[in-house]
Amino acid sequence: MRVSIVLPVRNAGPELEGVLAGIRAQRHDLGEVEVLAVDSGSSDGTPELLERSGAKVLRIAPETFDHGGTRDFAIEKAGGDVVVLLVQDATPGDERWLASLVREFDDPGVAGAWCRQVARPDAPSVTALRLAESLHGAREGRIARLAPGRKLADLDPFDRLALCSFDNVCSAVRKSVWRSIRFGPCAFAEDMIWGKAAIEAGHTIVYTSNAFVVHSHDRSVAYEYRRTYLAHHALQRLFGVRTVPDLATVWRSLGTSGPWMRHAWAHDRPFSRRVHHTLRVPVERFVTALAQLRGARDASEGKPPRRMRGV
Fold first, then answer.
1. What residues contact residue 34 under an 8 Å CB cut-off, 6+ apart?
2. Rounded mean pLDDT of the chain?
């Protein structure tokens, strides 16, 4: 199989050097692997760094960037039978990352695969724990497909979500399947939309824990609110998932903060960082619970997602 790696980028900063070094360090028998980047208006030398590394760079105007449409644009240009989609700050975890991910496509029924995420070494301890306990950090692989005769609508909302989960932080798609199931114009959750369409069409999606990338963020509480709102608007709209049913549940989130605060206090260093992240826990849990409530409520009422700048 021919393999291409697609990177949407904009002002990627110094972390991109680590990503490119991780790609160069891969050990595999896949032949020459194409690296194709789509730059949407960088001003920090990102395109030049990519070109020096041997990547092909496509340039688009910043205002035309779209999470789904831009990826479709790049996949159309890519020469691979399998196209790996990677974000600009997700670093391959080891030298077998690419081979482990692409190996899933030896099964001709596999339309897409995605891999495990591990928090950066300097990530807040609560961030690392939350990621490790999520679907995105699970250490057991999963093969997702609908059972014969079953429809997605027959399942519980959370089972629908688990079955269709797909994450373009690091994923791969079979190009022949993508030709009939594209991401399409989409400002958020283009990966989940694609996963749902692929499962409904009878394809298989694989989550592999053998391949992993190092990826996490230490974002502001305000950013976490905005992103959580959009995520839960999409989860309700796509799968009927509602994690926070009412305002009383939002307030109860404060009462469940203790174990997370103790974890931050025990693991974060130095002292100033320990205090900051421990005190942040109840604030972030309250704010993100409120975002879950509002996102799902707006979606259930048929309202479009509110505009969230910077997400």
1. 2, 3, 4, 5, 56, 78, 79, 80
2. 97
Instruction: Give how many domains the chain has, as a whole number.
Output: 2
311 lies in a domain?
no
The whole domain housing 239 covers 221-300
What is the rounded distance in angstroms from the CA atom of residue 232 to the CA atom of residue 243?
8
> What pTM was computed for the model?
0.95
Q: Can you give the length of the chain in residues?
A: 311
Residues 48 and 124 in one domain: yes
Burial class (CB in 10 A: 0-12, 13-18, 19+), 246: exposed
CB of 79 closer than 8 Å to CB of 34? yes
51 with 177, same domain: the answer is: yes
Last residue of some domain: 199, 214, 229? 214
Q: Tell which of 214, 229, 250 closes a domain.
A: 214
Dihedral sign for Cα 163, 168, 172, 178, please. Answer: positive
pLDDT at 93: 98
Q: Report yes or no: 125 and 277 within 8 Å, Cβ to Cβ.
A: yes
Mean pLDDT of 196-215: 97
Alpha carbon distance 234, 121 (integer Å): 30
